[in-house]
Amino acid sequence: MRLPLVFAAILLVAGCTSAQPGLGPEINVPAQVSTIQDAVDVAQEGATIVVSPGVYEESVRVRTKGLTIRGARRGSVIIDGEVKRENGIEVAAPDVSVQNLTVRNHTANGVLISEQRGFRVSYVTASNNARHGIHASASQNGVIEQSYASGSADSGFSVSRCKPCDVVVRGNVAERNAVGYEGTNASGRMFVLGNRFSGNRVGLTSAAERQEDVALVGNLVSDNDEALSPARADGAFGLGMRILSSTKNLVSHNLITANPGVGLAPSSSQDRLESNVIVGNGQDVRYDDVPQKKSKAPRGIPFNQVAAPPLQPEMPADPLPDRAPDVEKYLVPSEDLFDDRAAVRT
Fold this sequence. Notes:
Layout: H1 2-19, E1 26-29, H2 36-42, E2 48-51, E3 54-56, E4 60-62, E5 68-71, E6 77-80, E7 87-91, E8 97-104, E9 109-114, E10 120-127, E11 132-137, E12 142-145, E13 148-150, E14 155-162, E15 167-170, E16 173-174, E17 179-186, E18 190-193, E19 196-198, E20 202-211, E21 214-217, E22 220-222, E23 239-246, E24 250-252, E25 255-257, E26 262-265, E27 272-274, E28 277-279, E29 283-285
Parallel strand pairs: 1-2, 2-5, 3-6, 4-7, 5-8, 6-8, 7-9, 8-10, 9-11, 10-12, 10-13, 11-14, 12-15, 13-16, 14-17, 15-18, 16-19, 17-20, 18-21, 19-22, 20-23, 21-24, 22-25, 23-26, 24-27, 25-28, 26-29
């Protein structure tokens, strides 16, 4: 009797194996594998996971080097945390790219890059996440580009704990967040270029124990007095750009306007302030060691009640640009920079 049973078991295993789809360098979800996490778990190094439109109620953790996760349509490939899962996508492997999809309703971050090198986040919409929309923590040599963040109770875009960073944040839109962009202990070849930080409670903050070699160039920082956004813990409101504990940074070719508090609040005369247009703010420039009155900020609203984002552009079929920052090409932007991607207009 033992021989037939063993033979049957072999047939059963063989049958299961033959039923598995052939997984090559491109894996399609859900056509081949039912969830994004399952696809990530079976993917080999360097594979591309292409996700078809749908709402994916899951949290994805990437542990395999060199993967690309790409949505077929940015606005309709949605990783939804349902306000009960922590992160939409957590990248815990080097050289990973996340592209052309939406992450929403997570209790921490939409996309978290954690202690990695060589990351890229392109054409991602991050909305209604309790901490950050897209956050690179203790990570280096990366790009966050052409993305959108709203409804973040900490910041839409965040880079923290890197020196040198070798990180480029470019061409993004942040609105209806507590803070549009937040750099925390992020120094050394750190580039924030050509972004729109408008319609938040605070536009941009950059702070470190000793911060240097940060370039804030070509950004629109305006109208940061949005009441229908999550409240900031310290109550800050109406502030355009604040730079703390910094030396030898470049603040150049930014348009900082219509912020009812302070437009630009640097902390050091050693920073290079060049060719900025700073007009129409409650106070255009104030060095941050000057005593200030605490702003009377509106209460704010829960992160999951912030209005849904407008439709965002799809990632083009052409190859993405080189990772190099190319600082020289960024001039003072116009007040309608990325108006077509924004719900809060200047």
